[in-house]
Write a structure and sequence with these properties.
single chain, 111 residues, mainly alpha
């Protein structure tokens, strides 16, 4: 059995196509492998151990407890708006009494 020139052309085209398909899938597999390797390296750089996570949680809880304590202390040691207005009204009354006293004593004779 002898092959002619046109038969060899078909065999060469089929071989070229087979090499192309194999190259395509090999390239795709290598690209996925590289992508997976990058993802694994990213995970290695950013992962946290259970001990580190537990320590972080404890630090966060301690910080929150301190903040709550500070807020309670601020609530206990600050003047409320209503108290401020009440004290201001008392101060105004005392100042009015002082002005009246000064005026009665003759401090208002600027004529």
């Amino acid at each position: 059995m002898e092959f002619g020139a046109d038969t060899w052309w078909i065999v060469a085209a089929a071989a070229t196509m087979a090499v192309g398909v194999i190259s395509y899938f090999l390239k795709r597999t290598m690209s996925k492998q590289d992508e997976n390797e990058k993802d694994i390296n990213h995970i290695k750089l950013t992962y946290v151990t259970q001990d580190q996570l537990k320590e972080f949680k404890e630090e966060t809880n301690n910080g929150l407890k301190k903040l709550q304590k500070d807020v309670e202390e601020i609530k206990d040691n600050t003047l409320t708006k209503a108290d401020f207005f009440r004290l201001q009204a008392n101060t105004d009354k005392k100042l009015d009494k002082l002005y009246d006293l000064v005026l009665r004593m003759g401090g208002g004779n600027n004529e």
